[in-house]
Fold these 2 entries.
Entry 1:
Amino acid sequence: MAEGKPPKVICVYNKKRVGYIGDRVMVAIKGQKKKGILVGLKQTQNVKVPKFDSNNVVLIDDNGTPLGTRIHVPIPTILRTILKEKTHAKGADYTKLLGIATRFV
Amino acid sequence: MSLAMRKSPIEYFNAAKWIIRRDCRYLSNLPEVAETTEVVENKLPKGRKPRFLNPTLQYRHVYPEFLPDPNPKFRNSLREKLERADMLKRRSQVDIPEFYVGTILAVTISDPHAQGKTNKFVGICIERKGCGLRAEFTLRNVIDHQGIEVRYDLYDPTIQNIQVLRLEKRLDDKLLYLRDALPEYCTFPIDMDPEILPEGSPVPVNTVQVKLKPRPWLERWERQELKGVSNIEEHLKEKDRVRRELRKTPWEKFDLMKDYRKTIPIEDQAEIWGEVYNQLQQMRVSRKKMSKQRTFTAPKTQLG
C-alpha cells in the first residue's frame, strides 16, 4: 500500500468542506484521482462511534462499487445507516462496500 | 470555608484545625492513584478506632461521578440532587460496576445499526471524566492492527451490560499516552474471559511501564511527569529537555487554593454521600446476592 507518496484526500463532496464519517471524497493515489468513502476518522467522534488511529478510505467507482475485494480494517456499524441514507434509488449504491467488510465495531 | 465549618454539625473538624483541614484539601474527587494509596493508608488506622472520618467518603473513588463539578459556575444544588436521583434510578436498572482508569471492560449496547441489534466492545479504560449524568468513559483496543477508541456515556440508556474483565489501576490517572505506545500494550482479545478477584482484596495496581513509539507524538508527553512510560528519554533532544525544565511548575503542589478549587469540601461530600449511601449499599448487597446465585446456577447448566 505504501508505495511512493501516501494517498491524500484532495476534495470532500459536502457543503462543510470537512470530511465526516461516510462522506464521499476524492483521493489522489498513485498519480490518479479516485473517489472514495471515509470509513474511519481520527477526529473526535460522537458518543458510541469509534474513533480510529488513522483516517481510512475505501475506494469506489462512480456507481459506488468498491474497487477492491476486501476491507481489512474494522468498519463502524453506524455506516450502515449513514450509507443507506446517502443512497438514492437512481444514483450510486454506496452500501455495496458493507458487503466486503470483514468486521464491524 | 471556615464559616461553613463552624456551622457544620460535625464539630470534630473544628477541634483538629489545621491538620484535618489540610486533609480536607486532599479529599480530592480527582482520584490519583499514588495519592489514594497514601490516603487509604493514613485513613485505615485512624478510621478504625474513632471512626470520626465518614466511612462513606471512600465512595468518592468508587463513584466519582456522584460528586459535582467543583467549578462554582456549574453548581446548582437542585439540579445536582435531581441528577443523583436519576443516577440511582438508572443504577437500579443496570449494574454499573466499580472500575478505574486501567480496568479492562466489555460494554454491550443496543445498536440500531448493528445486525444483531447489539454491539459489544472490549477495551481498556483510558479516561474517565464528567460529573453527574454526563459522566463518560473511553475504551481503547487494537483490532486488526488498527487502534480504536469508543467513548460511552456511563448513564446511557442504551447500555445493556458493563462487564469488568480485569479490575486494576495503572500508575497514571489518564492513559492517553497509550495512543502513542506500541500496539501490544493495548491489544486485548475480543473474547477475553473475566478474571475474578478474591472477595475483599484491594484493587491491584498494574505497574507496567509502556514503551512509546518514536516521535511525532500527539502530545508532549515528556512535560506531563508520567509514571507509566519507560522510554521517554530516548526520544528527547536537548532542546526538549531544556524546555521541559522551563515549563515545570513545582510550586503547584503547594498551592492550597488551587487544590481547594479543584475539590469538593468535606462537608458537601458528607451531605452527598449521606444522601446516596444507603441506596448504593443496598444495591451492592443485592448484586452480590444475585451474583452468588448466578455462580451457583452456572455449573448446573454446564453439566446439563
Entry 2:
Amino acid sequence: MVQKKGTKTISQIIINIIFIVIALCCVVPLFYILAASFTDEMSLAKEGYHLLPTKFSLEAFKYVFKNPAQILNAYVVTIVVTVGGTLLSLLCTSMLAYVMARKDYKFRNVLSFLVFFTLLFNGGMVASYIVNTQYYNLKDTIFAMILPYIIMPWHVFLMNGFFKDTPMALIEAAKIDGASEAYIFFKIVAPISKPAFATIGLFTAFTYWNDWWLSMLYINENKLTSLQYYLYRIMNNIEFLRSSMAAGVSVDLSQIPGETARMALCVVAVGPMLIVFPFFQKYFVKGITVGSVKG
Amino acid sequence: MRKKMRKGFAVTLAMVTLAGSLTGCGKSEEQKSQSTGDSSSGLEEVTLTWYIPGNGPQTDTAKVEDAIYEYLKDDLNVRIDFVECDWGSYDDKVQMAIASQEAFDLCYTAHWSNNFYNNVSKNAFLELNDLLDEYGKDLKELIPDEGWKAATVNGNIYAVPNMQIWAYQGAIGVENSVLEKYNFDLTQVKELKDMEPLFEQIKADNPDMYPIVNCGPAELLNNYQNTLGYEELAGSKIPGALEYGDDSMTVVNQFELPQVQEFFKMMYEWNQKGYFRSDSATVTDENMDIQIGKSVSKLTSTYKPGVETDTKAKTGKDFTFQQIGESHLSTSSITAALTAVSRTSKNPERAMMFLNKLNTDKELYNLVCFGIEGEHYTKDGNYAIPVENSAYNPNQDWVYGDQFNALYREGQGEDDWARTEEINNSAEPSLALGFSFDSTPVQTQLASVSAVVDEYYSSLATGMVNPDEVLPEFLEKLEQAGSKDLIAECQKQLDEWVKENK
C-alpha cells in the first residue's frame, strides 16, 4: 500500500515536471515580451532580450499611449463590438444549432447541409465586400465589425453536437406541461447547456477581440477604429516612418521606439483577454469535450 | 413567466432588425445630400473621392476638406473626400474598392503599391489622353515627356506622374566623425571597392563593428545595380535585365553579367572579413546598427538633395554622401508615385480639372499637404512649420502630386527642389523608358523562378556562401525553372515596344 503510494508520487512528479516545462514554454516568451516592452530601445538593440529589463524605460508605452483619447475610444469600440457581437452571435448560433439538433424537425438535414456547405465553399472576399458595402451599406458603421461574424458554421456544429445530447424526453415533458418552444429553449435547454455557451462564447469573444481585418476593410472613420486595428496602424506607421522614403521629415525619427513599441503593443492587446480567460476556464474544458463526444 | 420570455425574445429580434435598417437609412440620406449648390462658375458641385495611402486618418481631415471646398468653390466647385489609409492596408482597401466596382474618382498608384500595371490590365483606370488635352493643358506642359512616357501603357496615358526625385543615382554615405578620424577623402571614391581601405582600418581598430549596412532596404546589390549599369525589366531580382546604353536592346540575365558575378565575390570576401553582419539576410531594420554605433556607412540608390537630413532624422548621426556612378531615369523610378483616375469615376472631367489645378496651384497644394495655415502649420518664408501636435500633418508631400509645389520642411535646403529637378533633367533616360513587362504569358515560369531566387539570392547578396560554388548552381536552377522563357518573352515584348515607339 505504502509502496503503491510511492510509485504514484514518482509518476506524478514526472508528469508534473513535463507539464511545468510545457507551461514554461508558453509563459516565458510572454515574460520576454513584457520585459522587452519596458526596456530602453537602444539597450535592447545592443544587448538583446533579457527576462529583466537591462535599462528600464517607459518610452514604448508613452509612444503607444501618445494619444490617450484615441486609444480609449478604440478600447470602447472593441469592447462594444466584443460584448455586443458575442451576445448576438451566441443567440443566433445557439438557436440555429438547437433547431438543427431537434430530431422532430423535418428539414434538419437540409439545414445542416446548408450550414455545412458554407464551411467548405464561400463567395470569397470580393463578394462579401460588395454585399456588405453596396447592399447592406455597412461601411463606417459599427455593424460592419459585428454582423460578418455572427454565425460561424464551425461553432454551429460544435453547439449542435452539444444539443444532440439533450434528452428529447425532457423537451417532450416540457411540451406536455404546456411550455412554448421559446420557453423550452431559453428556460430549459439553455441553462443545462451552460458549458457549451461558455465555450462558444469564449471562442467568439476571441474572434471579435482579435479582429482587425473587418475594421481595416470597412472603417475609415477614426471614431470607429477598433483597438487591434489601431495598434496595427501604430505599428505600421512606426515601420513606415523608420524606413520612409519621404524627404525632410521633421520629427526626430531615431527616438521613435521600434522593437520595444511592438512589444508594448502586444502587451496592450493581449492584457484584457488574459484577465478574462480564467473566468471562462471552469466551463472551457468541459464544453469542448462534451461537444465532441457523441453517443 | 412564459409571456415575459416571449416578449424578451421579440424585443431582441425587433432590435436586431431595426438596427440593421437604421444603418441602411442613415447612409443613403447622407449620399443624397451631397449634390446640391451651384457655383458662380456655372459648374454643379461634385464630390471627388480620393484614395490616399499614408499614416491613416488625420484628426482634422474634415476641416481641411472644407477648406479645400471653400478655396475651389467659385472655380471648380469641387469637394474632395479623402479616404486616408495606412501604407500597410492601402493595397487591400483599394484593390477591394476596384474589384467591387465601387465608385471613386482618384487614387494613388505605383509599381510597388496598388500595382499600376495590374490595375491597367484590369481596366480599372481611365485613359487620360483626351482628358489631358481638354482639361489638363497646364499639367501636360508641366510634366516632362519622360514622365508621360513612363505612365503610358499600350499607347495610352493611364496616370499622372507625381513630380519628385525620378533619377536613380547611387551614393555612399559615411558618418562624418569616421571620415575625420581616419582622414578619409570620400570624394575620391568612384566605386564601392574604393571603400575597402577605410573598412579595413575600422575593422582593425574595432573588431566588433560592421562598417557597412547590408540589409533590408539598404541591401548593397539592390542599391548598386544602377551603378553596375543595368536595369531590371522583368521585376525586382527576376532574371531579365537591360544594360544601360545597349543599343541592340538585348535582354540578359543580370546574374550572368560579369560585373554582378564580380560583385557577389566581393560580398563573399566582405562577409568573411566582417565588413557587414554575417546574418544580414535576416535583419530588416537598416538604421538600428547605425543608430547604436555598430555600423558607420550605407549605400543608397536614390541620392537626392537633403538625404543627409533624412539620414540624420532616422539615425541621429551626421553623414556625408558621395555620388558614385551615373544617374539614370527608368520607368520604375518614375512610376514610384502616380495618381490615376478610376474608371468608375462619375466626374472624370472634374477629376482632371482638379488634378490640373492641384499640380499647378501652390496654395492648393500646400493646403492638401500641410492643412490650414495658422491652424495646422505656420509659414516661415518658404518653409512650413507644423504646429505642435498638429491635427493635420500627413507628412508626405510626394504622394499628392508635384512635390516641387510644396513648402520646404525643416532641415531642407533653400533650393532643394531646384536641385532635385536638375538631377532629374540631367539624368540619362533609359533606352527602355516607358516599357513595362507583362508577365501574364509566363506566369508559371515566373513563379518557379521567383522560388529559386528566394532560395539563393539573399545568401549570395550577403556573401554567406561562396559564389564560386553556389552561383553556377543558382544559374542552373534558374534555367531549369524557366528563366530562358522568361527572358525570351521579355525580349519579344521589348522588340514589339521598340517597333511601336521608334
